[in-house]
Structures are given as structure tokens and as C-alpha cells.
Amino acid sequence: MKDHEIYLGFSNEKQDEYQKYLINRFGNKIEDSIKESNEKIKHMSKEDFEKSKKDWVHILDDLSKLWKRGARANSSEVQKIIRTHYEWLKKYWTPDRASYAGMGEGYTGFEWKDVFKQYDPEHPKFAEFFAEGIKVFAEKELS
């Protein structure tokens, strides 16, 4: 895929800003993950990328339904969706325990507000639930 297709919905400036944010937050060690992600995305077909975007929405929708029903982040139902999220994420990069949990914590930041507001207009309650589910998964399943 070409850069303008990869970051559909994001300007090159916004993508650069996001990558700088990640480097500032996690240090230079994140640069390998950014490179891995960029390489994987470049080898995706447009159809694969579109399917991946739909899969992301399904993950959020499914998780949101459980959150609204009061499910706990460590429940088997939630953890099944978090596993799906982790497998989905590996299409872009392969996080370890610390980086996956850190990514979850990042979901509670202001920069994700627009992504999650359709699930939780009072952000960050849904994002905190998602992050907690990721933390539980990372601690139990990843090394």
C-alpha cells in the first residue's frame, strides 16, 4: 500500500506527530516497533487493510457490549475479545507484555478520545475498561 492509503483518515503530519508522541512516551526502544508496523502495513493489500479496519470496529463493538452489561475486565468473555484484539494487533506489530499493557494505558489518553467517544461520551470509562482488560491479558498470557 502507498502511504496515503495506509494512513487513510490521518494526514502525514498527524502520523508523524503520533510517532513522535510514542517515541517521547516510550523512548527510542519503540522505534523498532514503529518500523515493524510500517513494514507490515506496506505489504498489506488495500482489501486486507479495509478488513482490518472492520475487524477493529467489531472488537470495539463486542467489548463495548460487555462493558455496558457490567462485565469485569478479567472475565473470560472480555479476555476472549482481548485475545482477538491482541491477534488483530499482531498484523501490525508484535507487542510483548510491557508494550501491550503500555498500549492499553495509552488508550486512556486524550488522543484516543475521539476513537472511543461513540462508546463512551464521558471518556475515559470505556477506555479504562479496555486498558484493564489488556493489562490482565498481558500479565496472564504474555512474557
How would you characterize this protein structure?
The chain is mainly α and 143 residues long. The chain is built from 8 helices and no strands. The N and C termini lie far apart (32 Å).
Instruction: Please outline the major beta sheet.
Output: none
Pick out the low-confidence regions.
1-9
Q: Give the amount of beta strand, in percent.
A: under 5%
Oligomeric form: single chain
Helix content: 55-70%
> Which series of helices and strands comes N to C?
HHHHHHHH
Number of strands: 0
List the keywords:
143 residues, mainly alpha, 8 helices, globular
Please specify the SSE layout and strand pairing.
Blueprint: H1 3-6, H2 12-26, H3 30-42, H4 46-68, H5 76-89, H6 97-106, H7 113-116, H8 125-141
How would you summarize what this structure contains?
The protein is mostly helical and 143 residues long. 70% of the residues lie in helices and 0% in strands.
